[in-house]
Structures are given as structure tokens and as C-alpha cells.
Amino acid sequence: MIAKVIVDISVSEVDRVFDYRAIDGVQRGSRVSVPFGRQTTEGYVIDICETTDLSQDKIKDIISVLDDRPIVSEEFLALCDYMTERFHLRKIDVFRLFLPAKMRGGRIKALQKIFVYINPEYLETDPNLFIKKTAHSQMEVFEYLLDAECAEQSYLNANFSAAAVRNLISRGVFLTRMQDALRTPYKSIVQKDNEVVLTEEQAAAVESIMSSDNPTLLFGVTGSGKTEVYLNCIERVLAQGKTAIMLVPEISLTPQVMRIFRSRFGDDVALLHSGLSDGERFDEWRRLLTGGARVAVGARSAIFAPLSDVGLIVIDEEHDTSYVSASNPRYITREVALFRAAYNGAKIVMGSATPSVESYYSAKNGKYNLVDLPHRINKRAMPEIQIVNMCNEVTYGNGGMFSNRLVTALDECLKSGNQAILFLNRRGYSSYVMCRKCGYVAKCEDCDVSLVYHKDENLLKCHYCQRRYSMLDRCPNCNSQHIKQGFMGTERIVEQVQKMFPSARVIRMDNDTTRTKDAHLRLLGEFANGNADVLVGTQMVAKGHDFPNVTLVGIMDADMSLHFSDYRAVERTFQLITQVAGRAGREKKPGSVILQTYTPKHYVYKYASAYDYQGFYEKEINLLEATRFPPFTEILRILISCEDEQLALDATKLAFDKMKEVAQNNDGCFVYLHAMRAPKKRIQTKHRMQVLMRIKPDNDVLRKSVYSVADSVISAYPQVTCFTEINPNDLS
Ligand code: ADP
Ligand code: ZN
Ligand code: ZN
After folding, report:
1. What is the pLDDT of residues 156-201, one digit of tens each?
2. Is residue 226 within 6 Å of ligand 1 at its C-beta?
3. Is the CB of 377 inside a 6 Å radius of any atom of ligand 1?
4. Is the model's pTM score more than 0.70?
């Protein structure tokens, strides 16, 4: 028999199928060890067949089968085919997504530990017959095991007398066996669950989700009880003997969320997220694979949870940008979810208080089943959002980061013993240019997105069309010289707070303070326990936390994401304001939100402060249609990079020429097509160039012709790296 193998070597030319002679135990989906050139490497068997084109003396034997079962199921073999085609990926890169990183190359294995149990022969007799009256410590550990039945030897040694344990083992009273020890993360977080009775709205939502043939978009305001709806749907599919996947943005994986799942599903839930050690991740993954856990909860990559017979996939906060992977292998989580749902006949529910405009558009057009949860569970009003015009502050001589209104509110909040969150709306590193006197923002005349200041050339550039503008020294609108670029940082905010309120205890949460494992959870925990009065942070404080004592939310610079160079910048801003505002006044104390902006007249603030999603959506979708951005087009980018600048240029030219041909043959399908250097011209030592296009959406044939252009670039210039991206979150 011949096995078709994808070898685990990351060179583009190698992403093809190699034939090997199968040995006993090799099946479709087996992970195997194979000779490759002069080395030995791992590979995945994607098929078994009778014949090969290789001659008998050329073909080599598979060396060994690496696991006790095929590690890639039929579903994942099919998913691999789908993903390679849909997202233009290499097969090996897709396979790597399917397994915990450290498992490859045998760098991690199941952890085997010594477990101790009582020899059954000694269970029926009076222990006083074989344990002396004076041997108290022996009796203690014996009684413990009578109750516990089995325990790790290291646990017994640590909690009882190690000598007593040794003695009982040597006399055959205790027996030992090697057993896989599972490294379960957050073991300590177990809480009794309160029985919850669904509201009528929630019950109707569950019915609708479970009976719809289309994916459901669950549009529920913050605090409307979406989580309870998800839990209920999961319970239903478990009762049918099926499994479930629940995806949340990485930074919403809070202790609260984990506690909820653990208390509801106990050991049936496996948690997958980046804070786990490699060992924990591997064990959780293996519990899913072997049926030890039937519910996977995790960030984006949990969509690859090795579950079979999936009955439900939940995508919480569906609008979150983390669901589109921004580095190789680039994939769109929702599309992977659709594939898995179709394969298993599973239901999909995507929930949000601020659905992406794209998803809401799909729902309105009948592609998704739209379910509303318009009311908060506790009927509590949304906190009032006050808009402060920072230009006025500048005019009246306050050039700092805090408006007078915010200082007063913070003072009141702290005096009354409540907590405050100060949110810095920071995204990416590129900066826009704004007049601090009148709020004017430099924008591209063609694209209506904010221009990005490029310090090296002292130029303003549009990242969507590459038009250049000279840097302003005066505001074209009001002639002021208060031109600002760059942004404030969280450290400076903390400094200011401490200067103004020396006794306030402040926690800072941003990328710098959350590098270490669990730091993010620890900081949130401290704030929740009341060990701090003020939490200063970036996006990561915006999501899903319940802090009952928070009565004030300050949005320091709302414009920051508004003027990000992205056609979805306004949408993101709306989402962020709604999310972060939802942190105030969750419980009995009413909350308020102070939003500081230099452009208070911008429509996003009107709709956000009125919590008017519908109004916002109408405005936004019309603009997207007029400017021909997604969902009315699809943005594709062929990204080419190479250390050799000339090669990168040549490859880009080839790609562009071929794309022009494709455009000619598909008259009217291209809204935009251009080749240029990427906004980040060099990363590390590689020169980056791109062919950027906007094409008619949902045109698989067209997308494939773009992919085949990329393929021909790869084969003509094997030295360059070439990727294709669909609707990337970040065009840098
Ligand atoms: P969302 O995810 O929509 O923002 P949550 O699921 O966090 O809302 O629910 C808000 C609060 O309401 C939570 O504290 C939750 O425990 C509570 N809750 C949800 N459903 C019910 C219910 N049917 N009865 C009582 N409390 C509920
Ligand atoms: Zn101005
Ligand atoms: Zn432009």
C-alpha cells in the first residue's frame, strides 16, 4: 500500500504530496515519521492507495506511526482541502493549526505520574489487622485513600507522611500504577451554579437558534443575557449526545467566563487559550480528542478543537477583529465555522451587542437568521454618555489629557468610594494628523479614510490608494498651528491620575503589563476585589467584565480609533464605545460615561451616545455602498516580500501585469487595482510590496484567478514570500 504524505517542512516547494510505502497501522489521518532527504521528519497521511508513479527502488518506507490513533479525522482532512483552496494556504500550514504546537516533533507528551490505590485484597479486612495502633500516619493515609480511591503519589507524599506511604507500598497494602496526569488549568475556579430560568426573550432566542437552518446572528444589548442563551443551547446539544465549540475573543476569556463554564459543565469543558502552558494546552486538547471533554471554550484557534459530532458553534462578540487571523496562515474563523457546521449538521450562533456591519447586512438579506434581545435582564438603563469637546478645553487653556468634566467626575467617584475605568482607545501604531483647535483630520480625497503620517519621509499617505500629501504645518480649516500627531500613552494617564489624586490606587493594563502568563487575569482580579480604585487600560478592559462598583468610565481619546486608516474605523469606534460604556453601572449603582473627543460633531458619537445601532447601521451601510467598500466589494491583497529589493519589485510587477490581464478578462469586476510598496516598506530585512485590489464580492472564480496569479509568482520567483489576504483587518 502507498501512503500519500504531507511532510512537516516549511518550504513552499515542499508543499506537495509525497508517496511512501505504508507500514502496519498507517491510516488516513495518521501522523507518521518518514525519511526526507537525509533527515527524518514528521508528516500527515492524507490518503492511502494502491499505486504510485515512483519506481520500486525510489520509494521509501514510512518509519513509524506516531500516535495510538489517526490524529487527523476525516473531517479535518476535508477541512484542510477546503482551507487550502479557500484561503490559498499551504497544506502543511493548515495541518499545523490542527495540533498543539509543541506536540509536533514530539516536544511534548502525555504526562505520566505514579498513582496509588489500595490493594483490593485489603479492602475487606479490618485495617487494624495490618496497621499497627501506633502507626497513626499510616492509618491517616489509608483512610484518606479509602475515601479518595486513588491519588497521585506526589500528592500523598506532600500531604501525609512519605515514609508511611512508602511503607504501605512496600508491604503490598497499596498498589501503584502509571497513569496520564492531566494538567487542568484553573482547577481552583469552581463555583456552585445558580439555577437560572430563561426569560421569554431568551427562551425564544434558544428556540430560534436551534431550529434555524441558517447561522443565527444574536443581536443582544450588553447585559441582555446572551451567555445564558449560549449555555442553554450547549446543554441541548450535549443532551443529544453531541459536542459544542464556544469561541470568545482572547481578551474576554476572563475568570468569570471560565467560572461560568466550569460550574455549568464541570470536567466536560476544556479551555484553550494562549495563557496556558504548553502542557496544559496539550492535555486540554487531548481530552477533547478522546472524549474526556465535550465542550471546547477558547479563542480563535479553538475552532480547530478536535471534537467529532459537533452540534453547535458559538462565536461570541462576532464583530471582534481577532477572528480574522492576521499572520500566516491567514484564515477567517467564521468561514471555518461554516464549514464545520455544514460537515456536522451543526447550528451556528454569532452574538454581539454591536454586530459588524457586514454581518448585520447578511442578516438583513436573509443569509443569517436574525434574533434580537433588546432588553437588559435587570431592566437597568444604559449609562448616560456625555460628550466633551476637547477643542474647547484647548481654547480655554487646558491642554492636558483630562477635561475639567472628567476631573470633577473622577473626584466625585473616588470620594464616594466607587471605582472608575479610564479607557484609552488605542489601536495600531500608525498615527493620524489632527488639529487640536477645530478637530480637523487629514483625509484622503479619494477614499475618505484618514491619512497616515510617515515620519521618515515627512509625508501623509493613504493606505488604501497610496496617494501622498505633504505634511501640514497649519490647519487648512482654521489656520491654527496646534497640529497633533502621535498619541498619549497609558503610563502618562496613570501619572496624571496619581498627581491629581495621590491616594488613589491605580492599575494599568496594556500590552506592557500583561506580557506574562495570567497577568491579565490577575490585574482584573485585583480590580474586581476592590484592591484598586482606578483601572487604566486599552481595549483589553473593554470586554465582558462585570465590575459592580464601577460608576464612571472615561474614554480618554475616542478619536484614536476613529481616524485609524481603515474603512471600518467608524464602525470599530462605535463598537468600542458601546462595549466600554457597558462597563459602567452594571449593578445597582447608576453609571456614567465621559467621552472626550476633538470631533464631537462626528455622527458616530451621536448614534453611540443614543445607543442607536440601527441608525448607525443605516448611515454606515449607505456610506460603504457609495465608497464601494466591503460588503459591496472584497479587498484582496497579494503581499510580496523579499530581502532582495529588485526581486521583490520584479515579482510585484509580474503579479500586477497578470492581474491587469485578469481584470481585462473580467470586465467590470474590479473597482480598484494597483501595485505599490506596502505601507510598512520593510519588516525586519524584507522589502514588502503589494498588489491591492477591490473586486466584486462572492466571486469564487475571480478569487481563484487571483490565487493562481500568486501561484505563478511563487513558481517564477521561489525566493520571494507571497501571500494573499482577503479583507485584511490591517493594511500595514
Ligand atoms: P450579555 O452577555 O448579553 O452582556 P450576560 O450574559 O452577561 O449578558 O448577562 C447579564 C447578567 O444577567 C449576568 O449576570 C447573568 O448571570 C444574568 N442573567 C442572564 N440571564 C438571566 C436570567 N434568565 N435570569 C436571571 N439572571 C440572568
Ligand atoms: Zn483647525
Ligand atoms: Zn486614498
Report:
1. 888 888 899 999 999 999 998 877 665 554 444 444 456 789 999 9
2. yes
3. yes
4. yes
